[in-house]
Amino acid sequence: MNALSIRNLRKTYNNGFEALKGINLDVEEGDFFALLGPNGAGKSTAIGIISSLVNSSSGSVSIFGHDLKTDLSRAKSCLGMVPQEVNFNQFDTVRSIVMNQAGYYGMARKLATQRTEYCLKQMDLWDKRDTVSRRLSGGMKRRVMIARAMVHAPKLLILDEPTAGVDIEIRRSMWKMMQSLNESGTTIILTTHYLEEAESLCRNIAIIDQGKIVEHSDMASLLARINIEHFVLDLAEPLDKTPVIPGYQLERVTDKVLNVEVPKKLGLNQLFVQLSALNIKVLSLKNKS
Predict the structure, then answer these.
(1) Mind listing the pLDDT tens digit for each residue in 148-178?
(2) DSSP state, 133?
(3) Which end of the chain is more exposed for a tag (fewer CB within 10 A), N or C?
(4) Are 152 and 264 members of one domain?
(5) Does one domain contain both 125 and 194?
(6) Residue 46 to residue 53: CA distance in whole angstroms
C-alpha cells in the first residue's frame, strides 16, 4: 500500500494563480522521501492540501488508502505534520505541548502520558520535559515539534524544512533522529532546500517546479545524472563505429558527430587523452542542449 497517493491535484487561488497544475505522486509505505522545489514552486501548497489546511480545486489525495475528502478523520489519524515555523505556545512546558496534542486525538490520559514520555525520550528531550519552551534552543524547539507530531503514532510523518536555520552540528543530530524514526517503520516525507540533506537521508525524490512534478526518481539515479555532463563532439574524420572509452558513455550520431556523457569526477581532459590515443581528432565541442 502507498503511504500517500496524489492524483491530478490542482489548486487555483482566488486571484487566478495556479499553484498546482495536475500533479501525480505516490510515496510507498516505509519510504524516506524528499520533496524539493524552489520558493513559489507549489511545494507548500501541496503540503497544505495533504495536511487538510488548504482546499484543493480538484484531484484527490489519499493517506494509507483513506481519501481526504471522504474519510478525513482516518486520513488525519495516519498523518503527523511538522511545519516550518514554531507554532506552539512559548509559555507552555515541553511536556504539556506534547500532552495537549495527544488530547486532540482523543487519547486517554494514561496512554497520552506514556506516549509523551516515549516521544520526548526518542527526541532526547525528557530531561527538558518541565522546561518552559521559550527557553529552549532553536534545535530543541524543532525536536519538540517532531515529538508533538509523533505522539499519536502516525504512520506518515511530513517534515517541512525541519533543519532550516539550525547549524550543521544540530542538523546532523536531527538527521540521526529522523533516520531512527524511519527505521522504526514511519514513512517520512521531507521538504528541504538542502540537496545534501536529501542525499544523506532519502531513498526517493520528487522535484516540483511551477506547479508541476518535473522529476520523480530514486535518489541514486538523480545524483548520477547531476554528476554527468553531456557534450557533442564534431570530429575531423568519419568513424565507422562507436569508440569505447572506459568511464564514458559515447553515442555515434553520425559518422562525424559523437554524443558523450562525461562524469564530473573524470572530466574532459582524460576523455581527450583517450580519444587522441585512438587517433580521433576533435574539431569542436559544445554542451548538449
Answers:
(1) 999 999 999 999 988 877 777 777 888 888 9
(2) G
(3) C
(4) no
(5) yes
(6) 10
